[in-house]
Structures are given as C-alpha cells and as structure tokens.
Amino acid sequence: MSETNQPHLEAPCTFILVRHGETASNVTNTFRGRTDVPLNEAGKAQAEALAKRIASEWQPNALYTSPVYRAIQTALTIGKHSGLTVTPYPGIIDIDFGAWTGLPFDEVKRRWPDELDLWIRHPGQTRIPGGEMLVDMRIRAQQSLRELAKRHTGQTIVLVGHTVINRVIIMEAMDIPDDHFWYIGQDTCALNLIRAEVNGNYSLLLLNDTCHLLSNTQKTR
Known about the structure:
Helix content: 25-40%
CATH class: Alpha Beta
Shape: globular
Strand order of the largest sheet: 3-2-4-1-5-6
Number of helices: 7
Largest sheet: 6 strands, mixed
C-alpha cells in the first residue's frame, strides 16, 4: 500500500493479533469459516497460556474479537487476565467458506476438485463457491487496520481472529500478494505483533509466535 493512502497517526498503534485456540474441527480438518464451534480442552489450555503471556508482557488498552464463538471464547480468557472488556468486531470475522462450510477436506476434494486445487495452488484467484475471495477480505482488513489504528493511536490493542483473516491482515500490512497466502504460518493461539507507524506504514515485529504454549502437542492446525 502506498504511504499516501494511509492515515498518519499521532503515535504508533500496536496490534497484538492472535488466533483462537484449537477446536474439534481443527483436529478433523473441517472447513470452519463462520460456524460457531467451541474450543476443545486443548484449545482452552492454549487460550489460558496465551492470556497469561499477554497480561505479563503487555498492558493492552482494548480487546477486539471476531464475532465467531471460538474467537469470543479465546478473547474472554484474555480479557479475564488483562482486565479488559471484549468487543466483537465484524471486520475481523473469518472467511465465508460458502458451500464448503462445515465440510471435511476430503468431501470438498471429492465434490469440488478443481476449485479446491485452485485454492491450494492459487488462493488469490479462487472464489470459493458461494463464499469470499481473498481480495474481498483484504478490503475489510485494510479498513479494520486503519479504523482501529486511528481509534487507538499510541495504544496497544488485542485482535482475536482466525487463520485466514490473520494471514490476510498480515499480507495487507506487509503488502504481500494474495497468492503467498499459504507461506504465512498461523498456529492455534499464535501471537503476531504489528505496529502501525506514524507515517502510515506497518512494521511486523512478531509472526506466529507460540513460545507461550507448553508443548508441541498444543501447536495444532
């Protein structure tokens, strides 16, 4: 993004961008999208570990979450440890997987082999049947970053999202092409640190950081 298109801030705004904890759908490799699936026990433990790290290393001023249940659960845990109220924010909701929503990977592969192959090879060119394209998500990612950075200039805020929207937010902040989507890791309860600079650009300070998780068994999908 060109610098002239970005709002100039009085002071940097820091985003603690995190992914929600593990769910049963992560384990079964199901296309979750906007379905309200709860955290499983591993996901709850991940959220606790993440929340304790955020509370110990930062003093965030606000906490926003995707309005999907698994993200809200994770955000509530963060809010408990940091003393923050959870605010649902539609701009960071997960991708609309359309006809694929709620289906396991193997079934999507059987019913939409060409579309799934394109999603894997060229995600930026794929319109999921009945769903979103990454370019659609980038528009709301851009709007969300700008709006929240302006609202919280000079502050640190937490955003609780999903693997797809988080990758899109990172691509938007770093001006990374959509087809590089799969090259950005986002483990469950991973933490990313993005700073909105006063000149309108962004700095990526941490990416897919999971050192707060106790073992590799908690780093899942």
